[in-house]
Amino acid sequence: MPKTEASAPGRICMQLTRAHGTASGSKGSHYKGIPLSLALSDTGGNTHMPDVKVKNPWHRPVVIVLVAFIAVGIITMVSISVVQHKPLPQKYKYGIVLDAGSSHTSVFIYQWPAEKENNTGMVQQLHTCNVKGKGISSYSANPNGAGTSLQECMDEAKQKIPAHRHSETPVYLGATAGMRLLKMEDDPASEKVLVSVERSLKTYPFSYQGARILSGQEEGAFGWITVNYLNENLRKPTGTLGALDLGGASTQITFVPQQEIESYDNSIDFRLYGNDYQLYTHSFLCYGKDQVLKLSMGEKLRSTPDKTHHIELKDPCFHPGYNLSKTVQSVFDTPCMQTVNMQNETFTHVGTGNWVQCQESIRKVFNTSHCPYSSCSFNGVFLPSVDGNFGAFSAFYFVMDFLNLTNDSFDKTKQKLMTYCSTPWKKIVENHPRIKEKYLSEYCFAGTYILTLLEDGYKFTPENWNDIKFIKKIGDSDAGWTLGYMLNLTNMIPAEDPDTPLMPHGGYVTFMLLFSLLIVVLLLMAYMYFRRSTRSGQKDIV
Ligand SMILES: Nc1nc2c(ncn2[C@@H]2O[C@H](COP(=O)(O)OP(=O)(O)OP(=O)(O)O)[C@@H](O)[C@H]2O)c(=O)[nH]1
Ligand SMILES: [Ca+2]
């Protein structure tokens, strides 16, 4: 046996083990089949050997145990941090908003990951259902019918949302211009309609949060929030998108202006994700596309010189060859204008298809005779100069999309509209056999109204015409006021920017793993380096 083997208690024994293991082919911490602890005690107490211990500080079992401990420690640390930060299985929350518009009601179901509800862009539209029939304001003579009309879509909502989430799912109903007009016309009737829809919605297992008429400012502002939330503009320093909404009975314009807002009524302040926004917004009641058609036709009927005989109303906004008998009542059944005395209950609506004359007739519904501010749109309403990009949705989109005018220059739009309006009605019907004739007949008028509203009303020019993007959806969600309304009422857009982790979960895990791996590799390299220097130290001794 070499000298070193017999004498040194701990450290020398390690060398012995290694020497023996190499010779016999055995590894590990046994000495001649005796456990290490026993071998150590066997050799203990011998002090007569020369002091070679100083040059050989590494004992293999100790280092192995140490490295193993460090490795286990690192793995445990990484595992814990990974588990700690692992996203929980996606739990979704849901919300329902009923858009009770003047022409119809739509039910929107939204969903969002429960743990990320304050992040921008997280809420998405899961489902939408169009209520059959007209808007709730059309039930003024039969209020109960308003509530009943919602049942089919609400039953669908019950199917779409998991049952265990029903009781915590908020339901909001917001009514817009149709109900605003009904309230003006017949306040008790509008109350009855609201009571009816409330009664109906309360029969569902959701968390009913109320049914109310939105103000025009709310409608405009929530539409603006929706498009900017969906575009993820709100947490970035980049500009925002203006919102243009065209309904059946009202139209809204909302944007962040460059100049001062001169009228208090048109100003709304928001603090969202730590940024302050001062919005200009205006809602023109009676300037939705259905009401403007009535205004325009009413104006034409009013200016007919002979009201005693049957009237043939020649209308340049309808196609040549269009000829339909309509009731006078269907034009004047609105609080947006005063009725006119006519001998006959019906008139014949005759299309002439002349775009220039059509635009002239539409211009008459805009009163531009007075403006108490530095600049106005029409009817004495303040309008700062339009600035930046705009998202134009609802009927702005339906109409321009049908007319294939969503991507054209201003001049091309005008030119295509001219051609379209002069196309004979017969040909239009032939080209679109599946579209309801009522809708089909109104596109020339609607397209011309949109162009006139944007150009004459809002002062868009051929130069900035293409700043207007005609949109229906952003991602999977419809552009409209409903999402913004829900985000606001559920406090899902915080005033201050919430703290976010330094890096995303995936990046964090990768970083931790790589960093741990680096530590292990460094430790191993250090171990090998010291082992080699220990060996060369031994050789020196031998
Ligand atoms: N072509 C076409 N027109 C539509 C469609 N949906 C609605 N409209 C018409 O477009 C106009 C505006 O519709 P909406 O934006 O739903 O209006 P609303 O919300 O009922 O009305 P407001 O209360 O004024 O906002 C109405 O004249 C509708 O009849 C559609 O899918 N296609
Ligand atoms: Ca609407």
UniProtKB/TrEMBL annotation:
InterPro entries: GDA1_CD39_NTPase. The active site is at 219 (proton acceptor). The keyword Transmembrane helix applies. GO terms for biological process: nucleoside diphosphate catabolic process. Its cofactor is Ca(2+); Mg(2+). Catalyzes the hydrolysis of both di- and triphosphate nucleotides (NDPs and NTPs) and hydrolyze NTPs to nucleotide monophosphates (NMPs) in two distinct successive phosphate-releasing steps, with NDPs as intermediates and participates in the regulation of extracellular levels of nucleotides. By hydrolyzing proinflammatory ATP and platelet-activating ADP to AMP, it blocks platelet aggregation and supports blood flow. Homodimer; disulfide-linked. This is Ectonucleoside triphosphate diphosphohydrolase 1. It comes from Danionella cerebrum.
